[in-house]
Structure formats: C-alpha cells, structure tokens
C-alpha cells in the first residue's frame, strides 16, 4: 500500500500535462491509444526504480526470508513493481475524469481506503460480511498481500510453533505446524496462497483495465476551463502598451530646419510619409503580427515588468564638423 501511495504525487502532474494533450489531440498529432502506450512505456523505468529502492530499504531492515537462494527477494521486487505500476495507472485514470486536483485527490483517497479496508489484512475474511467478500476477492491489494505472505511464510520460518507457546495466538492454536504455516492458517491465507500465479494475473488484469478506462476517459472527456488550483503563466498587460508606443513612434513629427545649409531634409521621411508607412504596415498585418509574437514571448517567459514606454523626440538637430 505504501508503494502505491508514493505514486499519488503523479496525479497533479498528469493534470498539468492534460492541456498539452488536448492541444495535440485537436491537431491530430497522434492517437489517444498511442499517447497511453507511450505513457505506459515511460513509467516502466521510473516504477522499477521506485520498487528497487523501496525493496532494498525495507526488505533487509525487516529481516525478511532469504530461503531458496534469495528467490523471495526477487519475488518481492516483482510484486512491488506491479503494485506501484498499478497505482500509477489508477492515478493516471483519475486525472482524466477529474476537473480539478481536489476532486482527483478525493477520489484517490476513496479508492485507497476501499483497497486497504477490503484487503483481508485490516478485517479478517472470517469477520467480513458475506455480501462484501466479493470486494476482497476483486481487490488487487488483497492478492498482493496473499502473494507476499506465501513466499515469506510457506517455505521460510520452519521452526515448530511448539517452541514458542504462549507468545503469539497462532502458536497456541496450531502447535503442530511450523511458524510460517501457522501464520498463514491463523490469518486465513492458506487457501488463497495455493495458486501462486493468480496474484500476478489479477494485478496485470487491473493494470490493463485501468489503462482501458483511461483510453475511454481521454477520448470522451475534455475539460476546457482552466483550473485555478493548477499553476499557470500570469498574463501581463505590459505587452499591450507596446502597440500604442509603436503607433506613436511611426507617427512622430520631426522638425527640420529649412534654412540650414548643412542639413538635407529630403533624405529623411516626412511626417506624412512616416504615417503612410505605418498605415501600410498596419493594413498588411505586419505590426499586429509582430506585436502578437512579442506579447507571446513576454508572457511565456513571465516578463511581467511594469514598463512605461517613452518616445524621444529630437527637434532642430544639426551636425557640424
């Protein structure tokens, strides 16, 4: 359950990537199925690293069994990998049907509570009502727990329970069995642990089922409104001031001295010609296109600096040698 909860942090990340997916989906860059397959492949090394780190940190500290040349260790690693991958797939699905992160976290908490409550560990199967037992047998966490207990206690802990009478309840109840088998019988795990391949099949089936639900969710559900809970680039009003400044710059009036013999006004644009140039560029859309590109660049980089545009006018300039 802990390795499954580690992947809960991926839920807001999936929701952050959702607008990009909607954009690419609208442009028909790829199919929805291709996107899900790519996500599944990308999650493989990350999940394997999580399972390996958790196994190395918890397995030996807890003093787990190393019987059979370390086969329980590798079985535990494979089991944790499947549980972590299942958690990642479930949270990926929740990100497709949740409009805001708060709704996704609430659904995730509800599912995790159901998986934990009906895992057969918190409530023993004998104490569970008959009409709720189907949840336990459909619960992948229950089968992960069964698989873990099987390869830990069926072969390991081979000391007789009679050596530990009075210490734990299952020692007194099953004195003729070994410690490991007495544990399995006391916690009602003996019957389910007879099929060692079944937990892996159920986990793989749940992973495939979660990804199929994700496929239908991404195809049929689309949230177009921006969530206030997710971070976004703040739109700045600074860029809009540049359009007004550009217009005033092109339409600036220049004063020229007609009596100056060292100044040739014919080489410089007149106020009427400068306004004509600006109007032509305005009609062709060049100014608007340039301003839009400039505004997008500023907002993308988060340059929301309050700048007051200033136009400098030089009147009556003359140059002498």
UniProtKB/TrEMBL annotation:
GO molecular function list: ABC-type transporter activity; ATP binding
UniProt-annotated location(s): Membrane
GO CC list: plasma membrane
Membrane topology category: Multi-pass membrane protein
Family annotation (InterPro entries): ABC2_TM
Pfam families with a match to the protein in the record: ABC2_membrane
Domain ABC-2 type transporter transmembrane residue range list: 3-149
Predominant place of localization: membrane
Transmembrane parts of this sequence: 73-94, 106-124, 197-218
UniProt KW keywords: ATP-binding, Membrane, Nucleotide-binding, Transmembrane, Transmembrane helix, Transport
Protein name: ATP-BINDING CASSETTE TRANSPORTER
């Amino acid at each position: 359950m802990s390795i499954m909860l580690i992947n809960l942090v991926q839920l807001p990340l999936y929701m952050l990537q959702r607008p990009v997916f909607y954009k690419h989906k609208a442009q028909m860059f790829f199919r929805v199925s291709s996107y899900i397959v790519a996500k599944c492949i990308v999650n493989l090394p990350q999940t394997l690293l999580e399972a390996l780190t958790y196994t190395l940190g918890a397995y030996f500290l807890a003093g787990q069994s190393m019987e059979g040349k370390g086969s329980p260790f590798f079985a535990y690693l494979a089991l944790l990998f499947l549980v972590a991958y299942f958690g990642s797939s479930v949270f990926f699905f929740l990100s497709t049907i949740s409009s805001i992160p708060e709704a996704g976290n609430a659904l995730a908490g509800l599912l995790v509570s159901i998986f934990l409550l009906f895992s057969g560990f918190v409530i023993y199967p004998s104490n569970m009502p008959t009409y709720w037992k189907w949840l336990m047998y459909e619960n992948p966490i229950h089968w992960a727990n069964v698989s873990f207990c099987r390869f830990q206690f069926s072969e390991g802990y081979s000391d007789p329970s009679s050596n530990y009478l009075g210490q734990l309840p299952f020692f007194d109840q099953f004195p003729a069995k070994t410690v490991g088998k007495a544990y399995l019988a006391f916690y009602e795990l003996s019957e389910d642990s007879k099929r060692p391949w079944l937990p892996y099949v159920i986990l793989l089936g749940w992973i495939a089922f979660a990804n199929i639900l994700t496929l239908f969710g991404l195809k049929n559900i689309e949230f177009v409104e921006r969530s206030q809970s997710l971070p976004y680039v703040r739109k700045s009003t600074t860029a809009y001031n540049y359009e007004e400044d550009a217009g005033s710059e092109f339409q600036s009036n220049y004063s020229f001295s007609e009596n100056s013999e060292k100044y040739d006004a014919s080489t410089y644009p007149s106020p009427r010609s400068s306004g004509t140039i600006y109007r032509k560029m305005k009609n062709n859309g060049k100014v608007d296109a340039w301003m839009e590109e400039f505004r997008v660049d500023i907002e993308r980089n988060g340059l929301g600096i309050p700048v007051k545009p200033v136009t400098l006018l030089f009147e009556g300039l003359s140059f002498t040698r």
